Amino acid sequence: MSSKSLSNLHGFKLIEEREIKELNGVARLFEHEKSGARLVNIKNDDDNKVFSISFRTPPEDNTGVPHILEHSVLCGSRKFPTKEPFVELIKGSLNTFLNAMTFPDKTMYPIASRNEKDFFNLMDVYLDAVLYPNLYNTPEILMQEGWHYDLEDKNKDLSYKGVVYNEMQGAFSSPEGVLMRKIQESLFKDTIYNFESGGDPDFIPDLTQKDFVAFHKKYYHPSNSYIFLYGNGDIEKELEFIDEKYLRDFDRITVNSEINVQKPYDKMQEITHTYSISKDEDDKDKTFLSLNFAVGRSTDPELYLAFSILEYLLMDNAAAPIRKALISAGVGKDIFGMYDNSIIQPSFSVVVKGANESDQTRFKDIVMNTLRKLVKEGIDKKLIEACININEFRLREAETGGYPKGLIYNMNMLDSWLHEGDPFVHLQFEETLTKIKSALTTNYFEKLIEKYMLNNPHSTMLVLKPEKGLADKKEKELKKKLKEIKKSLTDYQLDEIVAQTKKLKERQMTPDTEENLETIPLLSLEDIEKKAESIPQEVKSINKTKVLHQDIFTNKIAYVDFVFDTATVEEDLIPYITLLSRLIGKVDTESHNYSDLSNEININTGGIYLAPQAYADVNKSFVVHKKMLVKAKALSHKIPEMMQLIAEIIGTSKFDDKARIKEIIQETKSRIEMTIFDRGHSVTANRLASYFSPSGSYVDKLEGLSFYNFIADLDKNLDEKFDDIKFNLERLSKVIFNKVNMIINITSEQEEYDAVIKNMDEVFEVLTTQTLPTIIYKFAAERKNEGLLTPGNVQYVAEGFNFISLGYKYSGKLKVMKTIISLDYLWNKVRVQGGAYGCMVSITRGGNMVFVSYRDPNIKETLGAYDSAYEYLQNFKCSSREMIKYIIGTISDLDSPLTASRKGDEALSNYIRGLTKNQIQRERDEVLNIKEEDIRELASVVKNVMDQKYYAVMGNENKITDNKEMFNNIITVFK
Fold first, then answer.
1. For residue 340, which of 598, 785, 868, 925 sits 20 to 30 Å off, Cα-Cα?
2. Which residues are annotated as catalytic?
3. Angle formed at CA 695 by CA 672 and CA 818, multiple of 5 degrees
4. Strand, coil or helix: 563
5. At a CB cut-off of 8 Å and minimum separation 6, what does 679 contact?
6. Nearest Cα to Cα of residue 601 among 650, 559, 655, 642
7. CATH 3.30.830.10 region(s) of the chain?
8. Where is the Peptidase M16C associated domain positioned along the sequence (predicted)?
9. Class of CATH domain 269-404+413-467
10. Residues 593, 619: contact at Cβ < 8 Å?
11. How far is it, in rounded angstroms, from Cα 816 to Cα 810?
């Protein structure tokens, strides 16, 4: 369609149109003349269409009203009056993305789908939700999603409950989360960024219904909205829908959502804050230090990209000068950079983890002196080339980590568009990149360092130090406060709270009416593709080596995996497999020191890294294929260099630099600790699987809490153990990098495939060729039922077992049962009624079934919900419409779009596990043909799994010790 025919269409006036060759598309900026809504359309051939509506939502306090509203608008609206249309859409749409996100200054409601009919359905529900929510007349929505006084019996203790309240209790437990919040507060103390848009648990209970609805009324208007459409959709049809169904009913108004800018400081500010560690945890080497700088505006495309590169250059690679200076001075155990360009004034931080408060002056001096030296002597041009190259590779590859590309582009756009800047400026990176490449012949980065770091008084020095038992102290203060509140209330007021609690629970436990459920638009089974998508794969044997080739479009990039067998590794060396994977590519080789090696890898490739894996065989119970993947990617003209580098790192790495190995061990320990806070549910579920599953036990030693304990021990006793470490790494390297049983997996077009094959001998020459015996690890299930203590305020509660060992078989029907039990039973029991942020079910083809909650205030109540799940299934009844919904929601999970590299990963995984196209199709057919009675028959699987009473709980030390009779072992997690 020509721009002329789009110039004034369905109330939208075309403001600007331009080609964006980086996205292979045309971008158009519209304004809806009646309502004042802004709209951007990016038209290209991507079938994964994206829609979002975002609002500028500056917080005015710490009650978290933007975040609570983000949850609450999705709890019923004018046209869709069910209690949770959002959940109904997850259950029964073909969405490829469906969520809502709160940022410090905006709230975003994105959806994505490849099916046009589904896309319009999702758009309809989301627009109605944000513009006409039911929260005005339903106070129970704020009570459920935000906070409420919980009191079922006025003789019992008063407590706070609410989904966001518990979510933020978890968020405030993470020291890295506290650090990021304090950095923002320290730099922008006179602006909206001084407030926590997600909500501070100490202040969330100050939010009233009146203020809650007033915030929606003020900011959720089309005049304050930013609408985004992306992909191969019909733009005229989309604009007509948005105008006719919604925007034409609104008149343009003035919305004061201005985001003020912090006046620069006269000098660096110094701030000290604390975070909680366990009572029994050592507080030595537990302090965070950060130097933070306000850096220009997010609307500046050059600074936006240059500081992303500078973060990697100074801190986040092996050759990074600030990292090297701090590590060699013994300040901290992990160094990383943080560049936040998502707010109007971006911030740039140098962060040290694992330091002490006494290191503060030394830390600051080392950073500033290193920067002065770089400005005076100049940054190594090869390091600059390496850092620019790896960033350019990532921009061109556009690997979005499983998220729709349109969503990532939308978020990048909003970093400028929200602040009255050019909406397309961060998408058109070619011109900006060309300017930045002048750094290869000029002092470009040195000038940036001088202006924004050395001579920038708008900066802060933040010390975040540990405080033993702080969480316990705050918990006692909260209990005291609630006792005092209760004491101050009259009998009448207490009766009111009891009545409100009862009314909320009744609402939560009352199912939606059929009439209301039928308002949610639903596809039919005819809209679903019956045939499973397949990834083309050719299997060849070259020089007695198995080679897999996925011949798909990769935009001139070759994705290559060398897959080595680790089944020959002795059991006591399993954790060394992961340690080896963290070291190779980051230690000296015979040809390069580790800094130069890092530069060579970044100049010539898109990255080379190692990944240990455990693949459970789908046809042989309890058989696990143990592998080490060497994963690499490069543009076609750099394939020879990539292959040379792979050969160099796996064939000639040296393990004799004690100081370097110590650095990497400390960094590894630090990153696992971050994972424990950020992904506590995964850590707990994996620990539970280690009790009853051979694959779970292996993974625990490879990357779970057992591996963390191994790394913590090496960190503590490196000097006395170093000779053993070196010996084990050298021995393991010879055992693993062995041509016997090796697989090569190549995902690329034919030209790149041919180049890889041509250069294969480079790698073959450094491999051993020894036939070694497979080691059989002894395994016996053990009901360990651990309580895993952390200084956090919430729990992660997991229960499960292996159903194949109980005599059941895996089938596609279990996928539908998972959809039903996750999104009906557990959502209502554990999230809605229990107040946990989330609850999920994992069911593997190897037979592991695990239920796990996320940021959960409870323990016993959640385990009780798991144990009763079978009763829900036994009594399961639904209409044919409901069953269609569950089938569609399940298919949506199966049909997530994959990038080229992810297709390569999946094809390799299927090949190793023995999962054929026929089996995948059979499981899909089982999903499509499922009946109500099939779900009821699966009740016995869940009952027998939960009857084994295998569970693990990670979380608040007081909560776990108060329930110590439940656990066979209670362990303090952090060392």
1. 598
2. 70, 145
3. 90
4. strand
5. none
6. 642
7. 8-146+158-259, 269-404+413-467, 538-764, 786-972
8. 464-714
9. alpha beta
10. no
11. 12
CATH architecture of 786-972: 2-Layer Sandwich (3.30)
Please tell me the distance from the alpha carbon of residue 133 to that of residue 79, in angstroms, as a whole number.
Answer: 9
Q: Which architecture, in CATH terms, is 538-764? A: 2-Layer Sandwich (3.30)
The structure's pTM equals: 0.94
Q: Which CATH class is domain 8-146+158-259?
A: alpha beta
Dihedral of CA atoms 420, 422, 424, 428 in degrees, nearest 10, equals -140
Pairing of strands 38-43, 225-231: parallel
Residue found under tokens 């050019």: 422
Q: What are phi and psi of 588, to 5 degrees?
A: -60, 150
* Residues 866 and 823 sit within 8 Å (Cβ to Cβ): no
CB 927 within 8 A of CB 812: yes
Q: Of 795, 968, 961, 951, nearest to 280 (Cα)?
A: 961
Do residues 601 and 572 lie in contact, with contact meaning Cβ atoms separated by under 8 Å?
Answer: no
Given the structure tokens 């000296």, which residue do they identify? Answer: 588
Contact 426, 29 (CB under 8 A): no
Task: Grade residue 792 by pLDDT with cuts at 50, 70 and 90.
Answer: confident
Contact 315, 336 (CB under 8 A): yes
pLDDT in tens, 362-376: 999 999 999 999 999
Close Cβ partners of 962 (under 8 Å, ≥ 6 residues apart):
none
Alpha-carbon distance values, 873 to 83, 456, 652, 821, 826 (Å): 22, 62, 57, 8, 12
**Closest of 493, 509, 507, 490 to residue 149, by C-alpha:** 493
Residue in 453, 498, 215 with CA at minimum distance from that of residue 350: 453
What contacts 926, CB < 8 A, 6 or more positions away? 811, 812, 813
